[in-house]
Amino acid sequence: MKIDHITINVISMEESIHFYRDLLGLTELHEVDMGDHVLKYFRLDGDTLLELIRYKDDQPEYRYEVKTRGLYRHLALGTEDVNALYQKLSENQVECLCKPGYVDKLQFRNFLIRDPNGVEIEFVER
Fold this sequence. Notes:
Elements: E1 5-9, H1 13-23, E2 27-33, E3 37-45, E4 48-55, E5 74-78, H2 82-91, E6 95-96, E7 101-103, E8 108-114, E9 120-125
Parallel strand pairs: 1-4, 5-9
Antiparallel strand pairs: 2-3, 3-4, 6-8, 7-8, 8-9
C-alpha cells in the first residue's frame, strides 16, 4: 500500500498555489472543475500528489491546537537544508511554529510551520 494523495481544503487557492509552487517549489500539475469545487494538483514524490480543494460555497474555517486529539496532525516533508528553507519561509511571512533544531531521539533536524490554510507542516532533514 502507498499514499496516493493528500488533500487540503484551502482558504485561498491563490495563496496556496503561491505557497506550494513558489515557496516550496512543488511541481504544479492540472486543475479539475468538479462543479461545486475545484481541485488543483501538485507532485509531492514519485506518484504521490498533493490535492488542494476550493469549494465554491462559503464554509467556516476550523483551527485546532497542537495537542487536539482525534484528528490528523501534520504532513512531514523531507528537505536537504532546513536552515535555508526556514530562512526563505520566514522572509516570506510564513507562520513558523518553531525554529530548526536537532531531535536527538529521532536523529534528524526539523522545524514546523502552518501553511496559508492553517495546516501544520513539518520539514525534516535526515
